[in-house]
Amino acid sequence: MAASPESQLALLEPAQAQPTWQVRESLRARRLTVRVFPGGRVEIVVPVGTRARLVQQFVARHRRWIERKVGEFRHLSTEPEDALPMSVAFRATGQQYAVAYLPGRGAPHLEQSEGVLTIRGELDRTPLMRHALQRWLLRTAHDNLVPWLSATAGHHELEFSRAQVRRQRTRWGSCSRTGTISINACLMFQSPDVVRYLFVHELAHTVHMNHSRRFWRLVERLEPGWRALDRELSAGWRYVPHWAIG
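Above: the chain's sequence. Below: its structure in token form.
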């Protein structure tokens, strides 16, 4: 369960806490990580039960990097985090949609036609409108990314047991020891080259379940330009709109 705002702020010293900085506990987190979102919001993700002192030390170590990224990302979005999009553009596939909101009764219902998304429902129920968009994002990502992953695996003669698409906050992808590859739906907002690199990275884990030299040699053989793509992926959250993350 995510930490409440009160417990989040309590994890930081007064001198460290900022209005746009939050600490979130995650059952899936295995280590402390930090993300900076467009607009400058900072989220520090910690395993459940992490001591406040460890969070404070983590923030102190990475504060200069965080503040530099906040400066870079602050101008990227002036849109309020609870705003609903008027359009959606997927860099991965080139798909673009205009979004129309129409009044109606009951829970929001999303309909997709050629280049247009129509959401009908009670227009003052913004969280439900956003949730409808997020469900659509998951479906669209699954329909586009899973076949793409399968084609990439076939091209490199690698195998995985199954694929799943989730809307994750801290990882672009992962591969389990049983060969299940998890893909972040927000990859739809990344460039095709970056998506391909992420696929290659996770497929390489079906051979080497670590980040050893042998793993990186395999990645380099499959994707010689992986270093630049890895840097681009690390900064990829700047392309993900607020509605897709929240």
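The longest strand covers residues 96-103.
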